[in-house]
Specification:
19% of the residues lie in helices and 46% in strands. The chain is an alpha+beta fold. The protein has three domains: 101 residues, Immunoglobulin-like (Sandwich); 102 residues; 97 residues, no CATH class.
């Protein structure tokens, strides 16, 4: 049977051929899609929600709800890459791709009315108004700003970026650099909890939490929280004093320290909580870490040669090849640190 319109091609549906079906397919665009763009951070609002990325994809989904076709069985998709915002004329231009179940794909250019506004998003309003729910105070074991704070900030920066990208309410309001460390003003308390947990899991540190009444919000008391994070900024060989004895700091991990008793050379491990709650103190002294070459050894003693000045020493224990050892008070204390 020939097509009743063109009388050329074979009819496939309703007496029409595929070409005539496609040419007669109607696309109807109803209603409007409003868009608000934040001029400060490029966040945008479609409907009732603010978003930080994926504008064209969000608009495509919103526009699709306003499109109908003359055939209910046709699959209609808004091509997100085709979306163009025409603010002066108050419309959004786009293309639709229609799969009508035939061999060809219909592509049409369409537009939808849009009230396109420029307005600051809630986060920028809060940041501008210095809003925050918590402060993270990054400090050291001592009282001065040291490189361990910069290292911690470098580690946590990707965490902050990811946090801000996943939630419209997550933001870092400001960073204040002080002689003793950094103060991070955090928009959400829950984010501050996650950030301090991240620091605690990645650095040997202590956390102390305090809160202060900041006013009332929605009929309830509103508190601002301060999270003090004390990062251990000591290095290998630092002499630490505890209960009248001196210890050499051998190894540092996020969860524990390995100390060597300077007198007995006994090695033991100290956990985070025990270190910060105990009376451990930094003497401001440091043992020198050197590489030593084994000259000879027995089952109980080893003769070593300093790789720098070729001085020779005898230490207890049997060692082989080369070892690392601390030089402190004229004494050689072997370590488990790999040879550098």
């Amino acid at each position: 049977m020939k097509c009743i319109l063109c009388d050329k091609n074979e009819a496939i549906e309703h007496g029409l051929c595929s070409d005539c079906l496609d040419s007669n397919f109607q696309i109807n665009v109803n209603g409007s899609v409003d868009l608000t763009i934040c001029p400060k951070c490029d966040s945008f609002k479609v409907g009732n929600r603010w978003y930080r990325e994926g504008m064209k994809g969000r608009l495509a989904a919103a526009i699709r709800k306003h499109i109908t076709g003359s055939s209910g069985s046709a699959e209609i998709n808004v091509v997100s890459d085709s979306i163009s915002i025409n603010r002066p004329e108050g419309r959004i231009d786009f293309s639709v791709a229609v799969d009508n179940g035939h061999s060809s794909l219909i592509t049409r250019s369409e537009s939808i009315p849009s009230k396109i506004l420029l307005n600051s998003c809630p986060i920028c309003n809060k940041v501008t108004g210095s809003y925050y729910e918590a402060i993270i105070q990054m400090r050291t074991f001592g009282t001065n700003y040291t490189s361990i704070i910069d290292e911690a900030m470098d580690r946590i920066d990707p965490f902050i970026v990811n946090m801000e990208s996943r939630s419209n309410d997550s933001f870092l309001s400001k960073i204040v650099r002080l002689p003793e460390g950094l103060d991070l003003y955090i928009g959400k308390k829950n984010d501050a909890i996650k950030m301090t947990r991240f620091l605690h899991e990645n650095f040997f540190s202590e956390i102390k939490i305090t809160k202060k009444l900041a006013g009332r919000r929605e009929g309830e008391d509103f508190y601002r929280y301060t999270y003090l994070v004390r990062l251990l900024n000591l290095s290998r060989g630092t002499i630490i004093q505890h209960e009248g004895r001196e210890y050499l700091l051998e190894q540092i991990s996020p969860n524990s320290l390995t100390l060597i008793d300077a007198a007995s050379e006994r090695r033991f491990t100290v956990q985070q909580n025990d270190f910060y709650s105990g009376s451990y103190s930094d003497t401001q002294e440091k043992a020198e870490l050197r590489r030593y070459i084994v000259i000879s050894n027995t089952a109980s003693e080893t003769e070593l040669m300093d790789s720098l000045n070729f001085s020779r020493f005898t230490v207890k224990g049997s060692y082989h090849g080369e070892i690392m050892a601390f030089y402190y008070g004229g004494k050689i204390i072997p370590t488990e640190i790999p040879v550098q």
